[in-house]
Amino acid sequence: MEKLVFADGNDRELNFTDKIFGISNKAQEMAAREGKDKVIDATIGALLDDNGALIVFDAVNQALHHLKPNDFAAYAPILGLPEYLDVIKKYAFGAHTPNMYTAACATPGGTGTIRNAIVNYSKKGDTVITSDWYWSAYKTLATENYRNLDTYTLFDEKGKYNLKSFEECVEKYMAVQDSLLIIINTPAHNPTGFSLTDSDWKHVIEVCEKYAALGKKLTIFADAAYIDYTEDPDSARAFLKLFESVSDNILVLLSYSASKSFTLYGMRCGALICMTNKKEICEEFENIMAFSGRGTWSNGTRAAQQVLINLYQDASLKEAVDRERDESRKMLLARGKAFEEAAKECGLEVLPYDSGFFASVPCSAPDAVGELLQKEGIFTVPLAKGLRVALSAVSEERCRIIAPAIKKAMDEYFGK
Ligand SMILES: Cc1ncc(COP(=O)(O)O)c(C=O)c1O
User: 182-220: per-residue pLDDT in tens?
Assistant: First the structure.
């Protein structure tokens, strides 16, 4: 009998299975069956302490508990609370506020920023580009909104940003589209931990300028979800100043999320920030964001917006949250170093890692090798071209165990 299909795919790809949550569930089942100490779950993209408990910044917890009823019960304005729009730019820009027209809009997490960028800065049926190693939600978000996603090769043979591949990809779509949305997840890219250098950014801008001069419209979307977990979150923001001289046909969008920076994953709070040298484009941004917000989630989570305002305005709370974040940041960097060192010792290739929640190992049989690892109680996420290890979720000690275990599983699979 033919299967009854009720939902309408509308030509979208709807074979959705969340691989990450599926593998994480398997890890939990094994832990319940065989004991927690037998399982290393390196799938979770949230900060866990060395005992596997979710880190929640105490200052954020306090700020949440001190909210007044109206702070969470009332609607927020469609674009976000005005004070939120002001402080979120300060959090995102830090000491590197670009001398340009800027405007912000509140969104449900960083995910909402991506959705709004795709819907408003690319055409239905057009292609949005990103690198070949990318956060899989990009594809879901593009497809859900009737766009295609194509990729260029992230690394060249020396493990540097592959500008040639980037340029070729831009050229390919500028030959057939009037506009192009380019998603670049940096610094501390998911899934590799790679960061573009300022010199890479200059080249990216140069390539975009070439097509802007021909009258094309290019939107550079910088997904900075992990910017606060870099070696130096201040200098990691220096690239923002590089956009100051972009021409009017280049729009820069910065995505900032409270999920990681404030351990507020479940509160769904972020902001899309536009940076342009043309006032009208900035006004247009506010207009279309209001329309998009109204047509999707209506308005954002007021409680989270108010928490971020209060944290900014209360000097002692701000200092406390900055200190807590700094501790987590250092913990994460130490885990990354431990993983890299252990990989080097056993001869395991790891993709260029700078900082952030994840590191990745290139592998041509990620599913099979991932399954071999699972038999040893080690859970990672198989991607198209390798395995992702969530450093955010495992202790330094366990990072030192994972690297040789991956090497062993790969050797076993490839028969070395
Ligand atoms: C690359 C990247 N961008 C953005 C986000 C935003 O997440 P959220 O919507 O939870 O803020 C994430 C979260 O995993 C991510 O990995």
Answer: 999 999 999 999 999 999 999 999 999 999 999 999 999
- Which atom of ligand 1 sits closest to the CA of residue 223? 3
Pairing of strands 270-276, 101-107: antiparallel
Please give the Cα distance from 115 to 108 (Å, whole number): 10
Structural domain of 256: 76-314
Whether 18 is in a domain gets the answer no
Query: Is 180 part of a structural domain of the chain?
Result: yes
Q: How far apart are CA 38 and CA 378, in angstroms?
A: 9
CA-108 nearest atom, ligand 1 = 9
Which runs of E-coded beta strand occur in 120-176?
127-131, 148-152
405 CA to centre of ligand 1 in angstroms: 28
Q: How far apart are CA 416 and CA 410, in angstroms?
A: 8
Report the CATH number at residue 117.
Answer: 3.40.640.10
pTM reported for the whole predicted model: 0.97
pLDDT tens readout for residues 142-157: 999 999 999 999 999 9
